[in-house]
């Protein structure tokens, strides 16, 4: 009897232990995720192009903070559906949402885009095209420009929450106050300006500087060269002047006393204003002479720290430094000053530029705008048409350091017909951190391929076949 009772106790104890072990396995504490490891993203069907872009954006503190500031200034609503959706996904990727699953399903981004009337098929898509779709839609949501009023808005004119301009600021025929126009609190961090200018090769006259908005720089590969390249060489190629033929020249028309005179122009393109987050696109599709597309597998070496000073429109350097060909006045190579009685000296020109009084901003253009330096002689001040009305404190100071730190790299694995996008990104950061002060977390690199996230070295990142580069200003 005792033996049977003892066997029952042993059997009962074993059964209870098995039940406890099973309960621990099913409902026990799970393995904690490392704080510096980012989460993966579910591939909802050829969505690797979206996942790699979101992982790259999550590694850019300025973009992350801009989204948060945009939502803080105006509460999230249907008008900011995409802004709030992307911000939530970036919070998940930076481990600021504890209850989020791993990997996380980013299908809400597609739902937000469809709500904005974007049609995205389930087939493979280009990540760079999606990049412009997102930046354009985010710009529309965060611009806060006033909508066009109609008769149905009359009831809102007496809303006590409306803010109007004072009598001294706005006067109308009906003596009715005008509402205060909304303004942007923070500029979109990926937005910059390209400065372009045309100069006649015959008479030396130049057109006004034209500014074009850009969200990413597209640097094409040389058609006649297949082999290793560098990011610096592609940037130099981007700002290299090109010849534009058969352009109407008003200067030549005045000299020849004709209505229309065709001439060849030299076109220069440079950085008019650099963004906080510099996005560089390296298109790897090239069309052959027979019309067949091929993918370029050339390795492009890129640095961890990128210096962009030399690609700005004009160098506001010290006296007697090298200057580019965009000098104020007529280009000396055109020999247009041969009729002048005063000789032209050969030292460098004074550190002034045409844009300072037109685009003066301590935060963005405090150093002026300049392009790749080339040696050029000085034109005497009295013979130059440069605007010398720049603030004197800017002339005396040296150029600031427009330096960028690498935040993420997107690569395309495959060929023209079939491929997969992956991303290398820096470690987790908070919304208040920058790459300059992220500490040890900013040094770690992670390889993300949809739901798969693995640790990699910086050497592996720099050796990757880049398709898009994301640099954060430091």
UniProtKB/TrEMBL annotation:
Superkingdom: Eukaryota
Enzyme Commission code(s) on record: 3.4.19.12
USP domain location: 39-474
EC primary class: hydrolase
Reaction(s) catalysed (UniProt annotation): Thiol-dependent hydrolysis of ester, thioester, amide, peptide and isopeptide bonds formed by the C-terminal Gly of ubiquitin (a 76-residue protein attached to proteins as an intracellular targeting signal)
InterPro entries linked to this entry: Papain-like_cys_pep_sf (IPR038765), Peptidase_C19 (IPR050164), Peptidase_C19_UCH (IPR001394), USP (IPR028889), USP_CS (IPR018200)
Pfam families listed in its UniProt record: UCH
The name this protein goes by in its record: Ubiquitin carboxyl-terminal hydrolase
Origin species: Lymnaea stagnalis
């Amino acid at each position: 009897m005792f033996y049977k009772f003892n066997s029952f106790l042993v059997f009962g104890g074993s059964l209870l232990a098995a039940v406890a072990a099973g309960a621990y396995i099913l409902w026990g504490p799970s393995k904690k995720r490392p704080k510096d490891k980012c989460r993966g993203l579910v591939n909802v069907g050829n969505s690797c192009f979206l996942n790699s872009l979101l992982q790259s954006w999550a590694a850019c503190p300025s973009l992350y903070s801009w989204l948060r500031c945009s939502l803080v200034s105006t509460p999230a609503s249907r008008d900011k559906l995409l802004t709030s959706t992307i911000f939530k996904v970036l919070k998940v990727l930076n481990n600021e949402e504890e209850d989020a699953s791993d990997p996380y399903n980013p299908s809400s981004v597609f739902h937000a885009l469809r709500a904005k009337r974007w049609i995205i098929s389930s087939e493979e898509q280009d990540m760079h095209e999606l990049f412009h779709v997102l930046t354009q839609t985010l710009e529309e949501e965060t611009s806060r420009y006033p909508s066009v009023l109609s008769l149905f808005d009359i009831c809102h004119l007496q809303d006590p929450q409306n803010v109007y301009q004072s009598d001294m600021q706005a006067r109308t025929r009906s003596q009715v106050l005008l509402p205060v126009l909304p303004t942007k609190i923070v500029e979109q961090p990926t937005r910059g300006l390209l400065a372009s200018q045309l100069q006649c090769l015959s008479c030396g006259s130049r057109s006004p500087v034209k500014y074009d908005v850009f969200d990413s720089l597209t640097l094409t590969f040389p058609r006649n060269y297949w082999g290793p390249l560098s990011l610096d060489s592609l940037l130099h190629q981007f700002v290299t002047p090109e010849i534009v033929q058969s352009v109407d020249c008003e200067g030549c028309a005045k000299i020849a006393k004709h209505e229309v005179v065709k001439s060849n122009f030299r076109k220069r393109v440079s950085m008019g204003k650099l963004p906080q987050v510099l996005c560089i696109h390296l298109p790897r599709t090239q069309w052959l002479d027979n019309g067949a597309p091929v993918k370029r597998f050339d390795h492009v070496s890129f640095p961890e720290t990128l210096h962009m000073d030399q690609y700005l429109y004009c160098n506001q350097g010290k006296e007697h430094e090298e200057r580019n060909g965009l000098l104020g006045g007529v280009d000396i190579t055109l020999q247009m000053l041969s009729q002048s009685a005063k000789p032209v000296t050969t030292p460098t020109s004074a550190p002034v530029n045409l844009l300072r009084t037109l685009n003066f901003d301590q935060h963005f253009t405090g150093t002026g705008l300049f392009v790749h330096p080339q040696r050029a002689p000085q034109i005497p001040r009295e013979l130059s048409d440069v605007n010398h009305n720049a603030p004197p404190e800017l002339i005396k100071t040296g150029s600031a350091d427009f330096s960028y730190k690498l935040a993420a790299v997107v690569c395309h694995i495959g060929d023209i017909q079939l491929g997969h996008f992956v991303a290398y990104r820096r470690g987790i950061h908070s919304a208040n951190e920058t790459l300059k002060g992220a500490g040890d977390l900013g040094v770690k690199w992670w390889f993300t391929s949809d739901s798969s996230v693995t640790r990699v070295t910086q050497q592996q990142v720099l050796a990757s076949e880049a398709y898009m580069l994301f640099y954060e200003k430091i």
